[in-house]
Amino acid sequence: MDWSIQDIARIAGTTSRTLRHYDGIGLLKPSRTGNNGYRYYNQAALVQLQRILLLRGLGLGLPVISQVLDDEADAAKALTGHLEWLKQEQDRLARQIASVTQTIQAVKGGGEIMAEDMFNGFDHTQYKDEVEERWDNDAYAKGDSWWRGMSADEKAAWKQRSQQLGEDWIAAAAAGIAPDSEEAQDIARRHVEWLTGIPGTPASDTRGKGDVKAYVTGLGEMYVADPRFAKNYGGVEQAGFVRDTLKIYATESL
C-alpha cells in the first residue's frame, strides 16, 4: 500500500512543498512516482518521515538529520531509543500539567497553594547528584545559580550555541576530517570556550590549567561511554571523533 504526497502531507501535518524539498535534498525519497508525476510513499517511507519529524522536533537541522539517519539504518532500533526519550518527556509534561491544573484550581477556588507541588515537572536539577558526585557541591551550586540568573533570551541563545556546536561536530565527523586537522581543532577550541562559559566547571577556572586539561579529556571519554552524550554527536562513533579531537586540543593547546 502507498499514499499520495497530498495524503501524507495531510496525515503528517506537513506540506507537499516540504515533502518535495525533502526529496530534492535526498532526505526522503518517494517509493515511486506515478505517470502523472505525483509522488507516492510506502510504509518504509512513512517510517523514515516519522523519524525525520521526531528529530526536527529536537531542533536538529536537516543536514544533521540526514547524517543521523545514515548512521543508524535500523529504524526500529533508532525509534526505540527515541521512544524512551519521548516517555521521559511525556512524564515530565504530565507532571507539569498536573501542577498547573492544581494551581489554577487553587487560585480560582481561593484554596491553599502547596508550594511543594507547584513545580513538579519543572525541575532542571535532575542531574544534581551526578554533577556533585563527578565534581563537587560548589560546581553544581555555581552552575545552578548561573542558569537561574539568565533571562529567557540568554537561555535561548545559549541553547542555540550548544546546538550549533553539536551540529558542527556531527558535520565534521561526517566529512571524515582528521582530529588533528585545523578545522577539527577549531571546533575543539570553540567547545572549550563554550565550557569555559559555564560557571562551576573546571574549565571556568583559568587558574588550574592542569585540571582543565584533565577535565576536557575526561569529558571526551564520557561523551563516548555515556549514551546520553553520545547521541548529541550522532552516535558512539562520532563521539569518538569528538573525544580524539578534544584530547589532541587539550594536550597541545591547554
Task: Describe this entry's structure for a reader.
It is a single chain. The protein has 254 residues and is an all-alpha fold. The chain folds into three domains: 3-71, Multidrug-efflux Transporter Regulator, Chain: A, Domain 2 (Orthogonal Bundle), CATH 1.10.1660; 74-123; 136-253, Globin-like (Orthogonal Bundle), CATH 1.10.490. The chain is built from 13 helices and three strands. It has helices at 5-12, 16-24, 43-57, 62-71, 75-109, 115-118, 128-134, 137-148, 152-175, 182-196, 209-225, 227-230, 236-253, and strands at residues 3-4, 32-33, 39-41. Strands 1-3-2 form a three-stranded antiparallel β-sheet. Helix 3 crosses helix 4 and helix 7 packs across helix 8 (137-148). It is flat and about 65 Å long.
Give the helix/strand layout.
Layout: E1 3-4, H1 5-12, H2 16-24, E2 32-33, E3 39-41, H3 43-57, H4 62-71, H5 75-109, H6 115-118, H7 128-134, H8 137-148, H9 152-175, H10 182-196, H11 209-225, H12 227-230, H13 236-253
Antiparallel strand pairs: 1-3, 2-3
Helix pairs in contact: 3-4, 3-5, 7-8, 9-10, 10-13, 11-13
Query: What proportion of the residues form beta strands (DSSP E)?
Result: under 5%
- Oligomeric state of shown chains: single chain
Shape, per Cα inertia axes: flat
Number of DSSP strand runs: 3
- CATH topology assignment of the largest domain: Globin-like
Note the total helix count: 13
Look at the structure and give the CATH class of the largest domain: Mainly Alpha
Reading the helices and strands in chain order gives EHHEEHHHHHHHHHHH
Evaluate the radius of gyration: 22 Å
Name the average pLDDT. Answer: 79
For the sheet with most strands, the description reads: 3 strands, antiparallel
Parts with pLDDT < 50 across at least 5 consecutive residues: 124-136
Percent helix: over 70%
Query: What is the terminal-to-terminal distance?
Result: 58 Å
Strand order of the largest sheet: 1-3-2
The count of domains is 3
Structural class: mainly alpha
